[in-house]
Design goal:
Layout lengths: L5 H4 L7 E2 L5 H11 L3 E6 L2 E7 H9 L13 E2 L4 E2 L4 H11 L3 E5 L5 E6 H13 L1
Parallel strand pairs: 1-2, 5-6
Antiparallel strand pairs: 2-3, 3-4, 6-7
Length: 130
Amino acid sequence: MAQKLVKDIMRHDILVTASSDTKILEVAKKMSNFNVGSVVILDNEKIVGIVTERDIVRAISKGIGLDEKVSVIMTKNPITILYDEYINKASLIMNENNIRHLPVVNKQGQLVGMLSMRDIAKIKYEWMEE
């Protein structure tokens, strides 16, 4: 199997973002409307956090209100990966850090895509079918 790059399989057609002062409920609605499991939090076009379905479930279980700002529950300064890295490196990062969503950035640090464990699993499945 030829080594694929992150940019070859990342999602770039749907990049769901919000600002850190967006309410948790609005972020949850975005996830539902766009059928995604995470939202990247941007302030002034800089990645400052990420919120996943897990984060919202944890917040609800702790009694955090849906009217709170998403900054209360987001993972600050999330791990990212460059678009020209190999998929194997992305998979390793995700496994080592127990994360399922990895924002993809360009060399200037700007968000250009999203990589999920599902994307990686799909590639591995296609390889096995060859």
